[in-house]
Design brief:
It contains 20 helices and no strands. It is about 85% helix and about 0% strand. By secondary structure, it is mostly helical.
């Protein structure tokens, strides 16, 4: 047990470092884009167009397919090295063929996608132009996700996690080039020059291409060679045929998810809040991206192996461990976002957008913060289902989740004023995560019996108490800062500094007094 904990700490720590660097550079990228494009019509058009390939990645390739690939590759590995290598080669080629076809269809459908999302004519023309340039990213997302799954099976976790850093650096350089390109002083969808649109769109796509190149290079450094000489028909399609029964449920999952995202984006475009929604969602994802993704990346092969071998004890143990660490990491982050979200976005975005727009992003973040830990639990549960080749249950749970989100968004759009509608969009997603986590837990408990989640609830209770104690200190610090300073940005910056100086030690002291054992294990992870 001690050896595994040390291995987990080292592997998770390495991935967390890479992911933290990725999130920091990604945040810098988003801030830079906001400074150049703003949070109004041009920024909304770019973010909306860029959401199309990102939506496919997150909902199909980055989420579902990456989770499906790891269990499939684990089962192939159990049949011996030779079978594993040949199966992996065929799977890589099959994924390349399928993703290339999907990319072609998506690019041809660009005007249709944009017409569904964007009601304004000028915005629609700009978003369509950008969509043609950005949708080819789908193929390279697929290559990256598939190569990452192979790396994880070969117990190489950190190299692929550095890929997004490459992408972020390229986009930052693209913004620099964009600023140098001659164009109008005031950007509007109708005034942007063709050269500006080409630099922005192609530069963003080149970032994803180089991320895929980096990941393939990392795979080659492990000694694996991707052979294109594998017999393509019918052998390359065997991985596809072996998962044919899954495809209908995967298709349902993806279709329902995309309908939900498109509905939310349509509402956001109608209320001029796409950039607000996207920036709030970006900040929401940062804690999970650094801590939750790192942990699940390392544990996923173990979970898949436990399910494939029928080892219920190991599965329940790994699920409980992942849930407890997620709670310890994400509940304090949720409380911090609830209390400090508007101050954070005021410091980060004012100067790039006006004070009211910056605070609206923070208010949206604060309203959605309660869904952070449930989101991590949903991601964990999905991986357990996928490990057992169960695509049906995630698809049905997703129907419930998306239905919840759509109903909440529609109700808010019907009764609330414009700005409040935009602020509630991320919160609707968080409510759907709560519903999804509850449904997933009930199904897993029925399937595997008692899951030992009483330990998770005990950890949650202790972390909540420690977070509330820290929150009191944060509120006092924020109140003092706003009493002493009149400038909104200066007051927000002082509030953040004082809240961190008072809240972090208060949380650690409370955690030590209340005795949260995972905090001690986390220190081991950090030292590793």
């Amino acid at each position: 047990m001690g050896d595994f904990r040390n291995t987990l700490a080292r592997s998770t720590g390495a991935v967390a470092l890479a992911t933290a660097t990725s999130r920091v550079t990604g945040f810098a990228r988003s801030i830079t884009l906001a400074a150049v494009l703003g949070a109004a019509a041009v920024g909304d058009a770019y973010n909306g167009a860029n959401s199309l390939p990102n939506m496919v990645y997150e909902l199909l390739i980055g989420g579902v397919m990456a989770s499906v690939l790891v269990p499939v590759l684990v089962r192939a590995r159990l049949r011996g090295r030779d079978h594993s290598v040949l199966f992996t080669q065929r799977l890589l080629l099959a994924m390349a063929i399928v993703s290339a076809l999907a990319t072609v269809v998506a690019v041809l459908s660009a005007p249709l996608f944009v017409a569904v999302l964007v009601p304004d004519a000028d915005q629609s023309r700009l978003a369509t132009f950008l969509a043609y340039l950005l949708l080819p990213e789908i193929f390279f997302y697929a290559v990256t996700a598939t190569a990452t799954a192979v790396l994880n099976i070969r117990e190489s976790y950190a190299p692929a996690a550095w890929g997004p850093v490459v992408n972020n650096v390229v986009v930052l350089a693209t913004v620099g080039v964009f600023v140098l390109v001659p164009g109008p002083v005031t950007l509007t969808p109708s005034s942007m020059t063709t050269a500006q649109v080409l630099v922005l769109g192609l530069g963003t796509t080149v970032g994803i291409v180089l991320q895929a190149v980096w990941t393939i290079g990392a795979l080659r450094r492990t000694g694996f060679r991707w052979s294109w000489r594998v017999r393509p028909v019918p052998y390359t399609l065997r991985p596809v045929r072996s998962g044919a029964r899954m495809l209908a449920w995967i298709g349902l999952y993806v279709a329902v998810s995309q309908l939900g995202v498109m509905f939310v984006l349509r509402v956001a475009f109608s209320h001029g809040g796409v950039s607000t929604y996207m920036y709030a969602d970006l900040l929401f994802q940062v804690p999970y991206g650094i801590l939750g993704v790192s942990l699940l990346t390392v544990l996923m092969p173990r979970v898949a192996s436990a399910v494939a071998s029928g080892d219920r004890t190991a599965l329940v143990s790994d699920m409980g461990r992942a849930a407890r660490y997620s709670v310890v990491a994400l509940v304090p982050a949720s409380v911090a976002m609830m209390l400090l979200g508007p101050m954070l976005t005021t410091v980060v975005f004012v100067g790039r957008v006006d004070v009211d727009a910056a605070r609206l992003i923070g208010e949206a973040l604060a309203l959605a913060a309660f869904g952070l830990a449930p989101f991590a639990l949903v991601m964990l549960q999905l991986r357990v289902f996928y490990a057992g080749n169960d695509m049906r249950t995630p698809a049905l749970i997703n129907v419930v989740m998306v239905s919840t989100k759509v109903v909440v968004v529609a109700a808010c759009a019907a009764v609330l004023p414009g700005e409040m509608v935009v602020a509630t969009l991320p919160a609707a997603g968080s409510l759907s995560y709560v519903v999804g986590a509850a449904c997933g837990h009930l199904v897993l408990r029925r399937r595997y019996g008692l899951l030992g989640f009483h330990a998770v609830l005990e950890t949650l209770s202790r972390v909540l108490w420690a977070s509330v104690i820290a929150g009191v200190f944060c509120v006092a610090a924020v109140g003092g800062a706003y009493l002493l300073l009149d400038d909104p940005r200066e007051a927000a910056a002082a509030a953040l500094l004082l809240a961190a100086a008072a809240g972090v030690p208060a949380f650690l002291l409370a955690a030590r007094t209340i005795e949260i054992p995972e905090i001690g294990h986390a220190r081991t992870l950090i030292r590793s």
